[in-house]
Every structure is written in structure tokens, then in C-alpha cells.
Amino acid sequence: MSDELDPETLEFAHRMFDLARDGAGAELAGYVDAGLPVNLTNEKGDSLLILAAYHAHPDTVVALLSRGADHSRANDRGQTALAAAVFRKNSEAVRALLDAGADPHGGSPSAVETAEFFDLPEMLALLRPS
Q1: In a domain, 117, yes or no
Q2: What is the pTM (predicted TM-score) of this model?
Q3: pLDDT for 12-27, tens place per residue?
Q4: How many domains, the chain?
Q5: To 5 degrees, how large is the angle CA 56–CA 125–CA 117?
Q6: Residue 5 reports pLDDT greater than 90
Q7: How far apart (Å, rounded) are the C-alpha atoms in residues 90 and 14?
Q8: What is the rounded (10 degree) CA torsion for 59, 63, 66, 69?
Q9: Which domain holds residue 113?
Q10: Residue 1 in domain
């Protein structure tokens, strides 16, 4: 048995990653509800959640989290959805990920390290509440 996916399956997977990038949360949630693995990753290790966070779609982030997306999963470069949301300065996605239990110190660089490196005090305030 081959580990290679057929062209139709690959095309479908690419469409799912595009939905995450485009913020089509309701449509993507429907596919997850119908059996699409919520933690599906692409060839770079980016999960649907990481892509939604990086492309600043907090509603899609919430939809995926509510369906069990793993907020601690890192891509092949060690980046998490929380670090991606911090980098994009998306407070809504950062709050949703933190509320779901995402670790501000997880990944490499972590969300805290990302906020420090790019001098994002408003993101650091969310990550380090007083």
C-alpha cells in the first residue's frame, strides 16, 4: 500500500488549507463536523489552526478550537498558532487561544519571544496579564 495521496485527495486538502487562510470558518467547520481531521497539517506542518491564526481570522480560530484543534501543535519550524496570532497582532485570536489553554511559552520562538522580538507591548500585555 502506498503512502501517496491521489490527486483528488490532495486537491481537497489544499482547498481545506485555503479555507483556513481565507477565514471561511463556517465552511471549514462543516467539513470538520463531517469528518475532516481538525488537526490536518500541510507539507510544512502548518495546521488549519496555525493558518487561521496567521491570516488573522479569529472566528475561524474559535471554530477550530471548539472542535478540538490542538493549540499546542507546532509547525516544522516550531511555530504555534499563538505565536502566529501574536505576530499578526490579532488580539481576538490571541485571547481565544489563551482561553483554550495555549501556552505563551510554547514553541520556538514562543508567543512571548515573538512579542518581545517584534516589540509588541500590546501583545505582551495579553500574554502576561497583571
Answers
A1: yes
A2: 0.94
A3: 999 999 999 999 999 9
A4: 1
A5: 70
A6: no
A7: 24
A8: -110
A9: 7-127
A10: no
In a domain, 2, yes or no: no
Q: Quick check: 48 and 70 in contact, CB under 8 A?
A: no
Q: What is the pLDDT of residue 4?
A: 78
CATH number, domain containing residue 62? 1.25.40.20
- Distance between CA atoms of 54 and 97, rounded to whole angstroms? 12
Which residue is it, cell 490532495? Answer: 10
Is residue 130 classed exposed, middle or buried when 0-12, 13-18 and 19+ CB atoms within 10 A define those classes? exposed
Closest C-alpha to 75, from 8, 20, 1, 4: 20
**Omega of the bond leading into 109 within 30 degrees of 0 (cis):** yes
